[in-house]
Structure formats: structure tokens, C-alpha cells
Amino acid sequence: MEPKVVHTEEEWRAKLSPAEYHVLRQAGTERAFTGEYTDTKTEGVYECRACGAELFRSDAKFESHCGWPSFFTPLAGDAVIEREDVSLGMRRVEVICATCHSHLGHVFEGEGYPTPTDQRYCINSISLRLVPGE
Fold first, then answer.
1. What is the CA radius of gyration of the chain?
2. CA distance linking residue 96 with residue 112, whole number of Å
3. Looking at the DSSP assignment, which residues form a beta bridge with residue 70?
4. Pair 105, 68: CB distance under 8 Å
5. SS3 sequence, the chain?
6. d(Cα 42, Cα 30) in Å, to the nearest integer?
7. C-alpha 82: how far from its chain's center?
8. Is residue 122 annotated as a catalytic residue, yes or no?
9. How do residues 105-119 score in pLDDT, each as one tens digit?
10. Are 103 and 96 in contact (CB under 8 A)?
11. Annotated active-site residue in 48, 97, 100, 122
């Protein structure tokens, strides 16, 4: 599946801050407990910071105490793509934006959180932009 929003690496670098580029385009990770949305309880929709696609709703956000914003499900449909990531010598599932293929974080299952899906979408704050509800 090809991304709907495509830019050259030079265009991405011009559009994003160096920290945003590192996480979104190079699959980096922000330090735990440093992101602006880790403890946010504001109602609204979380968009991809790179392209503006809607990804998560605040009503799916929960406190996992892991250091990054956690959601138990993305928006319905094909808002995100999940793909295998073995970059650190272990199997994880990477979460990327379906619209621009930017790195968002990882999803984990079976951790025992009291959520409807038993999944934790562990997402970098810097990958998101919260649009508060009205």
C-alpha cells in the first residue's frame, strides 16, 4: 500500500522540526515521560503531526503509566498500518500513519490493562497533534 501523502526527504525536513523528523521519518522514539500528551486528558482527536490525518480519539486514551500516550484502539477503518519491527533484536509491531507512512510508535497486546481490546498503542507525543473537541 502506497502512502497518500508523499514528500521527498528534503521536503519532510523542511516541514518538520529535527525532533519531529527523527521520530516520524526515522522511526526514533522520544524519551519516556517527556511528551506533551503523556498525561493529557483533553477531549478531542489526535492527528498525525506530519500530514494531519485523524488517528486516535481521546475516549480511547488510557493511563498506562509507561511514559507515552496510550490508546486501546485507533480510529475505525484504516487510520494506521501495523507492521513487524525486529530492529532491536526483538519482535514488536510498529504503528505507522496510513496516510503518510510516518512512524507513530508500537502496539502491544496481552499486558493485562483493563481496556476493551487488551491492546496498548504506545504512541510518541511528538507524532501527534491534539485537536480539542468543541
1. 14
2. 24
3. 62, 122
4. yes
5. CCCCCCCCHHHHHHHCCHHHHHHHHHCCCCCCCCCCCCCCCCCEEEEECCCCCEEEEHHHEECCCCCCCEECCCCCCCCEEEEEECCCCCCEEEEEECCCCCEEEEEEECCCCCCCCCEEEEECHHHEEEEECC
6. 21
7. 11
8. yes
9. 999 999 999 999 999
10. yes
11. 122
Which residues are within 8 A (CB) of 39 and not within 5 positions of it... i.e. 6 or more apart?
A: 63
- Look at 75 and 76; give whichever has higher pLDDT: 75
In b/e form, how buried is each residue of 43-53, taking b as 16+ CB within 10 angstroms?
ebbbbbbbbeb
pLDDT in tens, 83-97: 988 887 778 899 999
So what's the pLDDT on residue 90? 79
Counting residues of the chain whose pLDDT is more than 70, the rounded percentage is: 100
Q: In CATH terms, is domain 9-132 a member of 2.170.150.20?
A: yes
Phi/psi at 57 (nearest 5 deg)? -110, 150
pLDDT for the residue 1: 77
The cell numbers describing 111, all together, are: 499486558
* Chain length of the chain: 134
Mean pLDDT on 119-132? 96
